[in-house]
Specification:
- With 343 residues, the protein is an alpha+beta fold.
- It has 3 domains: 73 residues, Arc Repressor Mutant, subunit A (Orthogonal Bundle), CATH 1.10.10; 154 residues, Beta-Lactamase (2-Layer Sandwich); 97 residues, 2-Layer Sandwich (Enolase-like, domain 1), CATH 3.30.390.
- 46% of the residues lie in helices and 18% in strands.
- The chain is built from 12 helices and 10 strands.
- The strands form 3 sheets. It has a 5-stranded antiparallel β-sheet with strand order 7-3-10-9-8, with helices on both faces. A 3-stranded antiparallel β-sheet has the order 4-5-6.
- The chain starts with 5 loop residues before the first helix and ends with a helix.
């Protein structure tokens, strides 16, 4: 059974489109003129009243037009294609992502966040994948003193994780070099979560000179993987919220900025969407973050390897231009995936 008649669907879509552009309540006269008077203002008022009773519109003032509810935005977004091609001008800007020869994930993330903010006129966010799903490429040991070693882990995407490790024994440089060669050859291309388990198995059978160092390496990996809050998060365009009608209340704007500064909360929110590959849209209260009740988030995953995913997106007012921004977010994510696959 259809939720709307064709006339109701048309009127709702027109109200959405006009509201997205104007941020003002939409009256029946505007819709009638847009439809070239195919329906009278009185007929449209009745249709809008029916849509209001269904929870898709509301009247902020007794003599004003109507405004879409979060329920209406959810209906509108669900009706849009999840994939599409950005406009010609947007594509021209996005081509700048494919021209540089990147060597590190951080460089791509930084450029992608700037491009997303510029093209969407909203705040962008790009988050690197969880460390445990990244692929191990190589390890380096730097002996700083008799009992201090700097361990440097490098992922296949070029991200680097460094940790200082204290040892009970004075390990010879030859032992460190041998361990480095052994690990790089045996474990290269293995996800970090699997690397931990492989080291545990080797601990059972390797010679005594490796045992202590292996234990230190595994403890270090536990620390690196456990520190989720240290993942890189790139945010661009927070100033674009200033001047937007929905954020004219300075206190609400301050609360939103504070939420964007809370890295732990952002990671928790965006990680929820890693379970759903591709485009995901959260509207208003769907984010479960109090300070973000009046905004929407358009997100998409990008892929580094078979099991390693990061996430990027755009944060803006609930009336953001979804039909324009969804293809931009989707295309940026797919472009990042293509770049990372050939790095």
């Amino acid at each position: 059974m259809e939720l709307f008649s064709e006339r109701e669907k048309t009127v709702l879509e027109l109200v959405m489109e006009h509201y997205i552009l104007s941020a003002e309540p939409i009256g029946s006269g505007i819709i009638s003129r847009t439809m070239k008077n195919k329906l009278s203002s009185a007929t449209i008022r009745n249709i809008m009243s029916d849509l209001e009773s269904l929870g898709f519109l509301y009247k902020p003032h007794s003599v004003a037009g109507r405004v879409p509810t979060p329920k209406a935005f959810r209906y509108y977004v669900n009706s849009l294609p999840r994939r599409g091609i950005p406009g010609r001008n947007e594509l021209r800007v996005m081509e700048t992502l494919t021209k540089p020869r990147y060597t590190h994930l951080e460089e791509i993330m930084e450029d992608a966040s700037k491009i997303l903010a510029a093209l969407s006129s909203c705040t962008s966010i790009v988050i690197e994948p969880k460390v445990d799903m990244m692929l191990f490429q190589e390890v380096e040991f730097v002996k700083l003193s008799r009992h201090t070693i700097l361990m440097v882990f490098i992922t296949s995407s070029g991200t680097i994780h460094k940790r200082l490790v204290e040892t009970d024994d004075d390990l010879a440089l030859g032992v460190l070099a041998e361990m480095k060669g052994y690990m790089n050859e045996k474990f290269g291309g293995m996800p970090f979560y699997a690397l931990k388990e492989a080291i545990l198995q080797d601990l059972q059978k390797d010679r005594e000179t490796f045992t202590m160092l292996y234990a230190k390496i595994r403890d270090t990996l536990d620390t690196i993987i456990g520190e989720e809050e240290k993942r890189e998060v790139y945010i661009e365009g927070t100033s674009k919220m200033i001047g937007v009608p929905e954020f004219s209340d300075i206190e609400k704007l301050k609360e939103l900025f504070k939420a964007l500064e809370n890295k732990e909360k952002l990671l928790k929110l965006f990680d929820r969407c890693l379970r759903q590959k591709g485009i995901n849209v959260l509207i208003g209260h769907e984010s479960d973050v109090r300070e973000m009740q009046n905004i929407s988030i358009i997100m998409s995953t990008y892929q580094i390897s078979e099991k390693s995913w990061g996430i990027l997106g755009v944060i803006g007012p609930m009336r953001m231009n979804y039909s324009k921004i969804i293809p931009i977010v989707d295309y940026t994510a797919r472009t990042m995936t293509d770049i990372l696959r050939i790095m």
